[in-house]
Amino acid sequence: MRFYSLDVETANPDQSTICQIGVGIFEDGELIDTWKSYIDPQDYFHWRFIEIHGITPKMVKRKPTFPNVYPVLREMFENNIVVHHSPFDRVAFRKAFDRYGLEPFEVQWLDSVRVARHTWEEFAEGGYNLAHLAYQLDIEFQHHDALEDAVACGKIVVAASKKTSLDIVEWVQKFK
What pLDDT does 126 receive? Predict the structure, then answer.
C-alpha cells in the first residue's frame, strides 16, 4: 500500500508562506522515492524562521511559487493517504490553498503524532515532537529540512505499523 509523507517549512508565522516542501513516497513500508522543492513564498522571511530552517530569500529566488507546484502535488496526493507530523503541515496547505484561491486536494490525512501516541505508551502524554520521536526510534535525519522531516515522519508511521500490525489504511480508519 502506498502513502505519501509531507513536511513544509515557512518563511514567517503566516503558515501560507511555504518556502520548502518535502515529500516521501512509501510503498509497502519502504521509502521508494522522494520529491523536494524550494518555494518562493512571495512574502518576507522572518529572521527567527531563517535561524530554524536556514532557508533564505536568496535560496528561493527564481524558484516556483505554490501555484506553480500545485499540479505536481495534486497529481501525487489526490485521493491518496498523506502523513504529516502534527497539524502544522496540513494547515499550511489549507492556508496556501486559500491564499492562492486553489481547490484543496481530496486527501486522507494521517497525523503521525496521533499514530505515535496510540502506539507507544511513553509518548501518550508527551515527548512526541519529531526530533524526540525520531531519536527514540533510532531514525536519523537533519531536522528542519522539509524532505528529511517528511521521511522521518513516514518512518515513524512505518515503525508504528510494524509494532501494531496495523497497515496505513487501518491507521486512517482508526482516526476517522
Answer: 86
Distance CA 1, CA 123 (A): 26
The domains found in the chain, sorted by start residue, are 2-174 (3.30.420.10)
Between helix 88-100 and helix 66-77 the angle, nearest 10°, is: 120
**Residue 65, CA atoms < 13 Å, CB-side half-sphere:** 10
Torsion of CA 56, 103, 71, 16, to 10 degrees: 10
Please write the tens of the pLDDT for every residue from 42-71. 999 999 999 999 999 999 999 999 999 999
Percent of the chain at pLDDT exceeding 90: 97
- The 10s digit of each residue's pLDDT in 61-98 is 999 999 999 999 999 999 999 999 999 999 999 999 99
C-alpha cell at position 75: 497529481
Rounded alpha-carbon distances, angstroms, from residue 6 to 44, 76, 173? 23, 11, 19
Q: At what angle do helices 112-119 and 146-164 cross, to 10 degrees?
A: 30
CA end-to-end span of the chain, whole Å?
19
**Chain position carrying cell 520521536:** 133
State the cell numbers at 112.
503521525
